[in-house]
Specification:
Mean pLDDT: 83
Number of helices: 2
Strand content: under 5%
Largest sheet: none
Helix content: 25-40%
Radius of gyration: 12 Å
Length: 70
């Protein structure tokens, strides 16, 4: 079984941040969530999860979500 890399999308046509549909098939972000650098922030978040951080801690420390969003 092949393993998926951190940067690969696990979603199928939905935004990885808000779960809304995306306009371009295979794109990981909707127009509302996209900003320059979001891929790096998401990869940092995923790396922290793999290191053993709790979801909440990884989200806040990586900048994926603000404390007020948790």
């Amino acid at each position: 079984m092949k393993s998926k890399s951190i940067g690969q999308s696990f979603a199928n046509g939905t935004c990885l941040k808000c779960r809304q549909g995306v306009h371009v098939y295979g794109c990981r972000w909707c127009d509302d969530c996209y900003y320059p650098g979001i891929d790096e922030v998401y990869n940092d978040y995923r790396s922290m999860l793999e290191e053993g951080y709790r979801n909440v801690d990884a989200a806040v420390r990586s900048g994926w979500k603000g404390a007020e969003e948790i």
